[in-house]
Amino acid sequence: MHHLDHFSDQIEGLRRVGHQLWTRGWSLGTSSNYSVVVERDPLRLIITASGKDKGHLGPHDFVMVDEDGKSVVEGQSKSSAETMLHCLAARQGAGAVLHTHSVWGTLLSNHFAAVGGIRISGFEMLKGLEGITTHESSCWIPIFENTQDIPALARQVETYLQSEGREPCWAYLIRKHGMYTWGRDLAEATRHIEVIEFLLECLGRTTRLV
Hints:
Helix 3 packs across helix 5 (about 185-205). The chain has helices at about 10-25, 85-90, 105-110, 150-160, 185-205, and strands at about 35-40, 45-50, 60-65, 95-100, 115-120, 140-145, 170-175, 180-185. It contains five helices and eight strands; from the N terminus they run αβββαβαββαββα. By secondary structure, the chain is α+β, with helices and mostly antiparallel strands. It is about 30% helix and about 20% strand. The longest helix has 20 residues, at about 185-205. The chain has a single domain, classed as L-fuculose-1-phosphate Aldolase. Strand 7 (about 170-175) and strand 8 form a beta hairpin. The chain has an eight-stranded mixed beta sheet with strand order 3-2-1-4-8-7-6-5, with helices on both faces.
């Protein structure tokens, strides 16, 4: 039996990040969910419970789930239906996953949906993404259609992430919904979301959306 009390440091890290992302306006109105991997074999994640105010998360607003997104602690709160998207990223090697709903991500995911993604090139801030060492680079953020059928969405994302010859991927957008970002640990995932949100705002402010 797992007890979340054993993972107070990881929970406190998620609480701090939640407050930071809420303050930035990227996780308003109980939207968003965040997770960290606490075990690899078997895979175990701690993830925010469904419907919680991300700016004021308490120590009991978290759930432990297995690789299929199922609760592993009796009597826990319910996690989001989107938990399996976190599990998918964790199975691909992510150590932390952050799902947010920013204004720019929402608007741009709709504006660029027809081309299937967003290309961002030439900005110094690209160097904040793991593996990029020069501003003379670009990142591609794929966009997936929004759906309430999360298993179907997870299959689409998994197919993309496992496709041969695809570009490096630090995040993806769901049209008119939000963004999933990840990293080897919570610090890297947080850095990636800050960098990508900065880049999305730069792009958004120079794009005619209407």
